[in-house]
Specification:
Blueprint: H1 3-46, E1 48-49, E2 60-61, E3 67-68, E4 83-84, H2 85-92, H3 102-113, H4 122-129
Antiparallel strand pairs: 1-4, 2-3
Helix pairs in contact: 1-2
Length: about 130
């Protein structure tokens, strides 16, 4: 063999080994990511959105989803308990939040659509908006 071929052989062996190691790492990553995605999907279903958030618990919810003083005519009392992510997802798709009338459901879903970062329930709502693959 010429010197050129001998110099290339160890390099080729290293490249093959590196490719095999990367393939093994890639397979491990796939195996690790799938359960994480399943866990994320499950947590989205079970996360909770309080209406309104605890910092504004004394407020009522107007038909447009805004917060108004308690007792405001045409507004709705706070929900008795937080709504689960799956219930909110169903309601946002045209269904109804459990234990609500048609008008309450509309006001509560309007409130949820208006949630902003830093508000309790926002992370849950944002995760419901993420497409799942």
């Amino acid at each position: 063999m010429s010197d050129d071929k001998q110099d290339m052989m160890p390099q080729d062996g290293v490249n093959r080994r590196r490719a095999l190691m990367l393939g093994a790492v890639g397979a491990t990553a796939i195996v690790s990511i799938r359960p994480a995605l399943a866990q994320t999907a499950a947590s989205v279903i079970t996360c909770e959105i309080p209406v309104p958030d605890p910092a504004r618990a004394g407020s009522y919810i107007a038909a447009d989803g805004s917060l108004v003083p308690s007792g405001t005519v045409g507004a709705f009392a706070p929900a008795a308990k937080p709504f689960k992510g799956q219930d909110v997802k169903t309601a946002l798709g045209g269904g109804q939040l459990p234990g609500t009338t048609y008008d309450q459901n509309r006001a509560y879903t309007n409130y949820i659509r208006r949630l902003q970062s830093g508000t309790s329930g926002f992370t849950c709502f944002a995760s419901l908006q993420m497409p799942r693959g």
